[in-house]
Specification:
The structure holds two protein chains of two kinds.
Chain A lengths: L1 H9 L6 E10 L6 H12 L11 E9 L6 H13 L5 E6 L3
Antiparallel strand pairs in A: 1-2, 1-3
Chain B lengths: L1 E6 L6 H11 L3 E6 L10 E4 L19 H11 L3 E5 L1 H8 L6 E3 L7 E9 L15 E8 L3 E3 L2 H9 L3 E6 L18 E5 L5 E4 L17 H14 L1
Parallel strand pairs in B: 1-2, 1-3, 3-4, 4-11
Antiparallel strand pairs in B: 5-8, 6-7, 6-9, 9-10, 10-11
Chain lengths: 97, 232
């Protein structure tokens, strides 16, 4: 505890980190061949009641804690620009803390 | 005139395109490294097929931010001719030079075979030596060639006649069986509204010598050359 406090004093920029998770998936209505195939496999395995499967992916991003910009805004910008293709995909930023 | 073939890390049809331009078309051509910031006075830019950046994230998504793309986007906006083949087409979509996006093939498989392409327009620099309704035998080789655009976008594409090539049977019928990847409306290649940017999934550079089973793809390169010759 004490040690950490001292370190903080010596180094004004803390090494605190911010974790964010960005979930990217295909928009509603966009065909998801992977999801359809998984759904069919589940049917074949005998799992009843599986109505639909949509696939997607997530990115776990670690930011420097002293980042001056609001991390939510920054994540949204990154997701829009690179992580997701807005023509076919939607994204959600979660767990930024 | 001079062609520029852009090389991204992971491009693998760059040499095919370069060789056709030099040895078959007897044109001037040079490679442009993706880190370059100059197009070196090239008159037509080719974004070749391959797996730029390992297809990581989405096909073309990272290549689209390569330094040379800034120049290519400007070149295209100023009316320069840009041809994107396969991965090159995917890069043009990601860059927003052409509308829509690519999904995985509906079969989820990498499809590599000869298909037939029906020519829908011959008033473009890329197709001027073709006839409307011609069917060209050209191979496809991709896993993400399932063209998608929303309903409003598709209506606009059709209204503006931006679809240049569609997957068809040998006789030009647009059937589901002739469509190798599930593309909307059998779309294989589209142009922008101005008609100076063309993207297509099939590989004309792989079908430009009869020893390769077809030289129908040569028509695309012949058209570009004829366009510049006429322009003088």
């Amino acid at each position: 505890m004490k040690k950490g406090k001292m370190l903080k004093k010596a180094k004004p920029k803390t090494d605190k980190q911010i974790q964010a998770v960005v979930y990217v998936s295909l928009k509603e209505g966009v065909l998801d061949p992977q999801g359809i195939t998984v759904k069919r496999a589940l049917d074949d395995l005998g799992y009843r009641g599986v109505k639909d499967v949509r696939s997607g992916r997530f990115f776990q991003i670690t930011l420097e804690g002293n980042s001056s910009r609001n991390s939510q805004t920054l994540m949204a910008e990154i997701a829009n620009k690179l992580l997701a293709n807005p023509v076919i995909e939607r994204f959600e930023v979660k767990a930024a803390k | 005139m001079k062609f520029g073939v852009v090389v991204f890390p992971g491009s693998n049809c760059d040499y095919d395109a370069y060789k056709i331009l030099l040895d078959v078309m007897h044109q001037r051509a040079e490679y442009l490294w993706h880190k370059d910031s100059s197009l070196d006075n090239c008159d037509c830019i080719i974004l070749p097929g391959g797996f730029s950046y390992g297809d990581y994230l989405r096909t073309g998504a990272i290549a689209r931010f390569s330094p040379i793309m800034k120049q290519i986007i400007k070149f295209a906006r100023d009316g320069g001719l840009v041809l994107g083949i396969c991965n090159g087409f995917q890069i043009l979509l990601e860059a927003g030079l052409l509308p829509g996006a690519m999904l995985q093939n509906s079969s989820l498989r990498f499809v590599c075979r000869h298909i037939y392409l029906k020519v829908e327009r011959n008033d473009l620099p890329f197709t001027k030596t073709c006839q409307i309704g011609d069917t060209l035998k050209i191979p496809v080789a991709h896993k993400e060639g399932n063209y998608y655009i929303d309903q409003a976008g598709l209506l606009e594409l059709e209204r503006e006649q931006q679809v240049v090539f569609r997957y068809s049977t040998r006789n030009g019928e647009l059937t589901e069986e002739a469509n190798p990847n599930g593309s909307l409306a059998n779309i294989a290649g589209i142009t922008n509204k101005q008609g100076n940017v063309l993207g297509l999934m099939p590989h004309p550079e792989r079908a430009s010598e009869s020893t390769l089973g077809s030289d129908d793809g040569k028509k695309v390169f012949e058209s570009i050359v004829a366009y510049f010759e006429e322009r003088g």
